[in-house]
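Structure representation:
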Amino acid sequence: MESIDPLEQTLHTARALVLADLAAGQVAAADVVSMVEDSVVQRRWWVEQWPEGAEFVAGLVAQDVQDALLETYGRWPLCPACGSGDPHALDVEPELGPDPHWVCHKAGAKVAAVGSLGTAAGGASSS
């Protein structure tokens, strides 16, 4: 039985998490999926150079896609926690670290883990 290369598994997981968040926001159009693929290609090289950074890949891919979307679509993902005021995007924290989360700086709250926006949208309680 073939074993899956840990690097490929890391990249596959990061891709799946970011695609899940895009789908939750109904933003997973073909050109957006291409942005994810482009990021995964770039991050493959990055993690080959720095294998210890493998646990940071999901957050980095999320940030790459967020940056790419800003240029073409606008802010993503919009904060589901703040019901009033100007729409604003969530940020990934930590910027370079394990267990990345989408965070609302306005409310000072973690909204969802990267890959879990679907469970947060609409289900987030505002306090």
